[in-house]
Specification:
Layout lengths: L1 H33 L5 E10 L5 E12 L3 E3 L1 H11 L1 H23 L5 E5 L12 H10 L7 E5 L1 H5 L3 H13 L2 E7 L16 E4 L9 H15 L3 E4 L5 H9 L4 E2 L10 H21 L1
Parallel strand pairs: 2-4, 4-5, 5-6, 6-7, 7-8, 8-9
Antiparallel strand pairs: 1-2, 1-9, 2-3
Helix pairs in contact: 1-2, 2-3, 3-9
The protein binds ligand C2E and magnesium ion (3 copies).
Subcellular location: Cell membrane
Protein name: EAL domain-containing protein
Length: 286
């Protein structure tokens, strides 16, 4: 009878479950060919050095130009990609795009330019990223590993999976920079900031909230990071008030709509060209 009841219950919910599951399965199937059909795009969001106003880095952010559904944001397909494991192939592709873009920006504009890529936890487990392959690609492209920053999450720092620990360590030992993304949204205790040699910490936009505690929290986090030798990037900077506050709080870098939305690599090139030109005009005028 229990079995019968269970089956009835299952049948009752089945149509609803199937709908969501089918939508995810369709997306997962379409994603299998998306790389082959060149449907992914990478946009780059400029990162500004707050003390100079210079664009010194950019964050690679993936998009999916879906043939029927238009341009999809990461939130619409990354969770499925993580679930199916497709994120490994997508992440490798984004990494190679980022390498090519940073190389181009270094040759044309700024030899110290850096580009960051976001990491998913599944990329660092067994059967995920092959770190040796990433390093080979950097060698082929003659790019210094420190030009690439891998953004990790708090949950990755906490993970004790052997592969995760080993791969993050290997990236660091190879000279690739590590950045802690979305700091303040997870459950990472401050002690874990020392677990890996982090180069950057990205303050989540929720820290920039217009409440009383906002600026004090920001200042404390920045001071703590600096004590540990970690430079700080504020994310989601949307207005000049925040920009001024962050500079006053000692924040090193800022990223957000007040500076620029994510743009194509060609637009990034143009943005850096405009800066080069204004410097040249300034030089010839002297
Ligand atoms: P994230 O790493 O925290 O990236 C920052 C997100 O904030 C981006 O959303 C960016 O477009 C958005 N943003 C930029 N400026 C502002 C601002 O002034 N205000 C606000 N409120 N938001 C701003 P996006 O591009 O939709 O990406 C969402 C998330 O998807 C990213 O969050 C990242 O975790 C993930 N993601 C993006 N690309 C990749 C990828 O190649 N691989 C993986 N694994 N994850 C990715
Ligand atoms: Mg990020
Ligand atoms: Mg991220
Ligand atoms: Mg973030």
């Amino acid at each position: 009878a229990a079995k019968q009841q269970g089956r009835n219950r299952f049948n009752y919910f089945a149509p609803f479950m199937q709908e969501a599951t089918r939508a995810r399965m369709t997306l997962a199937n379409e994603m299998r060919d998306a790389l082959m059909h060149n449907q992914f795009r990478v946009l780059y969001q400029p990162v500004i050095e707050l003390s100079t106003g210079n664009v010194v880095k950019a964050e690679a952010l993936v998009r999916w130009q879906h043939p029927a559904r238009g341009l999809l944001c990461p939130s619409e397909f990354i969770p499925v990609a993580e679930h199916t494991g497709a994120i490994v192939g997508i992440g490798d592709w984004v990494f190679r795009q980022a390498v090519q873009t940073v190389k181009r920006m270094q040759l044309l504009h700024d030899k110290n330019f850096q580009v960051s890529v976001n990491g998913s936890i599944c990329q660092f487990r067994e059967r995920g990223v092959n770190v040796a392959e990433w390093l080979d690609y950097l060698g082929e492209q003659r790019l210094a590993p420190k030009s690439i920053i891998v953004e990790v999450t708090e949950s990755m720092l906490l993970d004790t999976d052997h592969a995760v620990v080993h791969k993050l360590q290997a990236l660091h030992e190879a000279g690739i920079a590590l950045s802690l993304d979305d700091f303040g949204t997870g459950y990472c205790s401050v002690a874990f900031l020392k677990r890996y040699a982090l180069n950057f910490l990205k303050i989540d936009p929720s820290f920039l909230m217009e409440n009383e505690a906002g600026p004090a929290l920001c200042e404390a986090v920045i001071a703590l990071a600096h004590k540990l030798g970690i430079r700080v990037i504020a994310e989601g900077v949307e207005n000049q008030r925040q920009q001024v506050q962050l500079l006053a709080a000692g924040c090193d870098f800022g990223q957000g709509y007040v500076f620029s939305a994510p743009i194509t690599s060609d637009e990034l090139d143009e943005m850096l060209s405009a800066v080069d030109k204004s410097i040249n005009i300034h030089r010839t005028a002297c």
